[in-house]
Amino acid sequence: VILGFVAVKMGYPLADPIIALLITGLIILTGLEIIKDSSRILLDKALIEEGVIRKLAESVEGVCNCHRVRTRGMPGEMFVDLHIGVDSSLSIEAAHKVAGDVEEAIKSSIEGVLDVVVHIEPEDYCELTEPTRRLGK
User: Which of 9, 69, 88, 89 is most enclosed, with most CB atoms within 10 A?
Assistant: First the structure.
């Protein structure tokens, strides 16, 4: 802006609108970058690949499978939600321990994960197809 003022005073009247257009372009580019970054968060774009979470969960003893993995948040403040299948003969206490181990495995392996919600399902239920599971609800 000051450069445009100086250029006009030195006898270059077209410098002011040219510099104004350059500044406008920079403002537009900055706005587009902000929209691009924030739209990922607003649209709940997955921040961590589902396969990474699934592999971590299934590496925990007692987990027969992992599905319905969802992540949200922004880098440095991520939240994970997943379902695990466990042996249907496990006690509630034992299944809860498995879920806690899954939570700890994810938090300790992936930086920036603040919270992990683990839904426990009996292994028999996990083997059903998705439409059949919905019938049971």
Answer: 69
Longest dimension (CA), the chain: 88
**CATH number 3.40.50.2020 is the correct assignment for the domain at 50-135:** no
Q: Is the alpha carbon torsion for 92, 71, 65, 133 positive or negative?
A: positive
The domain ranges of the chain are: 2-42, 50-135
pLDDT one-digit tens code per residue, 50-94: 899 999 999 999 999 999 999 988 778 899 999 999 998 899 999
Of the candidates 84, 92, 95, 68, which has an alpha carbon nearest to the alpha carbon of residue 118?
84
Query: 129 is written with which tokens?
Result: 């197809």
- Residues 6 or more apart in contact with residue 67 via CB below 8 angstroms: 54, 82, 83, 85, 126
Element (H, E) at 79: strand 77-86
The first and second tokens of residue 25, run together, are: 């372009």
